[in-house]
Amino acid sequence: MSKNGMISSLIDIRNAFLVEVSIGIPANAILLLFHILMFLLKHRPKPTDLTIGHLALIHLVMLIIIGVIAMDVFASQQQWDDITCKAVIFSYQVMRGLSLCNTSLLSVLQAITLSPRSSWLAKFKQTSTHHSLHSFFFIWVFNLSMSAHLLISTVATTNHTSNSFMFITKSCSRWPLNYLLRNIFYTLGIFRDVSLTGLMALSSAYMVTLLCRHRRQSQHLHSTSPSPRASPELRATRIILLLTSVFVLLYLIDCIVYSFSGIWWENDPVRLCVHILIGNGYATIAPLLLTSSEKRMITFFKSMW
All domains of the chain, ordered by start, with CATH? Predict the structure, then answer.
């Protein structure tokens, strides 16, 4: 790519970054604020409220970190030191893992909420909030442990950096781990991603089955067509199904970009930015989808005014 073409691409991607972050941060902040106020004011929560608030917090922090990384890519500033590189890259990877785990948990909780009383999942309805707190603790510990190796392998890029380093950002690089450790962390990462994505697929398939059953029952009861107004649970279920579909789609695109472009192996800011832009589009789309199904937000903020 020519120098002028690279500059033009960087400008376009920088503008896309600004749009993504300027939409995602306020959207996640509003969604998080709503659930905090609902909790503090003792409003009757839904089983998924705590998980949605947690997901909004994760995405808010993630987008702030993306903004910091974007400053390192686009702005002309001094190189980061080792501590800054370790903190930024480690926090970013932890937030990405938490986003995957929390989305999977949200899908499972909604499947439990939608399940009929005759289902074996119904016994978890009353204790779903209690189980969510334990799940949050587990996924935090798990993802902090999964990304701990970055605290050792991430270093600041210098003019004397060896060719064996893997570039992450303009200021940061990674020292390759030995063969055994690299394969251990790679296998654990693949197992986490595949198992949680599969769990999302199973819970989504279960919810689709319940929605189809509800549709047939509605057609039977109304003899002509389903009720024109779906219940809040059904609206929320459709949004969460859409949410998981968006996540899986962006995750697959992200994996393809990662696999075939060698982003982490070359000091190419354009491909690096494309990778981060695609990988974090979910953090901007998720709060918009969740807010669109949250009719309580309009009523709540109107009552506050």
Answer: 3-304 (1.20.1070.10)
Comparison of pLDDT for 69 and 56, the residue scoring more: 56
C-alpha distances out from residue 270 to 1, 161, 171, Å: 10, 21, 15
pLDDT of 195 above 80: yes
The one-letter amino acid code at 162 reads S
CB 196 within 8 A of CB 135: no
Instruction: Give the per-residue pLDDT at 263.
Output: 42
Q: What is the mean pLDDT of residues 245-271?
A: 68
- CA nearest to 89, candidates 29, 30, 6, 153: 153
Q: Is the pLDDT of residue 10 over 80?
A: no
Residues 6+ apart with CB under 8 A from 237: 110, 114, 207, 210, 211
High-pLDDT (> 70) share of the chain, %: 73
Q: How far apart are CA 14 and CA 273, in angstroms?
A: 8
- Mean per-residue pLDDT for 91-98? 92
The pLDDT assigned to 227 comes to 46
Q: Is residue 165 a contact partner of residue 264, using CB atoms and an 8 Å limit?
A: no
DSSP 91-124: HHHHHHHHHHHHHHHHHHHHHHHHS-TTSGGGGG
Length of the chain: 305
Write down the H helix ranges in the chain. 3-40, 49-74, 82-114, 128-146, 150-153, 179-222, 232-261, 269-279, 281-292, 295-304
Pick the residue with more confidence: 220 or 155? 155
Distance between first and last Cα of the chain? 54
Contact 124, 113 (CB under 8 A): no
| pTM (predicted TM-score) | 0.85
Q: Tell me which H or E stretch contains 167.
A: strand 166-167
